[in-house]
Amino acid sequence: MAKQAQSNKGPQQRSSQPGTVNVAGKKEPKAKRAAHPLVGNDDVKVYPFKSTPGDFDWKSHKPLKKKDFASDDGFFIYKAEEFEAKAKAFRTQAEEAKKMGSTKDRAKAKRLVKMQEKMAELMKQLQAQGIDTEALLATAGKKDEE
Q1: Which pLDDT tens digit goes with each residue over 109-138?
Q2: 88 with 58, same domain?
Q3: Is 88 exposed, middle or buried (0-12, 13-18, 19+ CB in 10 A)?
Q4: pTM of the model
Q5: With a cut of 70, which residues of the chain have pLDDT below it?
Q6: Which of 8, 16, 20, 79 has the lowest tally of Cβ within 10 angstroms?
Q7: Do residue 127 and residue 68 come from a single domain?
Q8: Residues 69 and 114 occupy one common structural domain
Q9: Amino acid 38: pLDDT
């Protein structure tokens, strides 16, 4: 059996870990969620909550705990709302996957959109310079057919 060449670089780290910098581009650190401003409030009319606060944002606030609610039913309604929001997001992802196909197909579609945006930007630049892009594209298509 042939021996495999070993790298002297040591163990390689994954670039997809949160907060790491990707070699190809910079990745911003993952935003940390903050506690809701009313959590721990001294006013017993406000905290503990009787129901989910109206200004509660699932993405920017830390999850509430059972102790943050005056009764168990308020907490369970909060959890039901959380899971309903997650279910809605998963249904949206399922519809997108149904339309776009596999992960590789979605990546290709995203790449196509980016290329199309770059093409539109380039066309605007050329048109600003006085170049007839429609004629240019029409002649380019004829060369491909020959």
Answers
A1: 889 999 999 999 999 999 999 988 888 888
A2: yes
A3: exposed
A4: 0.53
A5: 1-27, 141-146
A6: 8
A7: no
A8: no
A9: 86
Tokens linked to 83: 């899971």
In which domain, by residue range, is 65 found? 33-100
- Angle at which helices 133-145 and 103-128 cross, to 10°: 130
Whether residue 83 is found in the same domain as residue 106 = no
CA distance to 17, 37, 49, 67, per residue, from 45 (Å): 42, 15, 8, 15
> Is the peptide bond prior to 48 cis by the omega test (within 30 degrees of 0)?
yes
So what's the pLDDT on residue 32?
87
pLDDT of residue 20: 57
The verdict on 39 and 96 lying in the same domain is: yes
Same domain? For 45 and 90 the reply is yes
Q: What pLDDT sits at residue 21?
A: 56
Secondary structure of 79-102 as H, E, C letters: HHHHHHHHHHHHHHHHHHHHHHCC
If one counts the domains in the chain, the total is 2
Query: Rounded distance, CA 63 to CA 130, Å?
Result: 56
Asked if 67 and 119 sit in the same domain, the reply is no
Looking at the fold, whether 116 and 84 belong to one and the same domain comes out as no
Here the tokens at position 64 are 């509430």
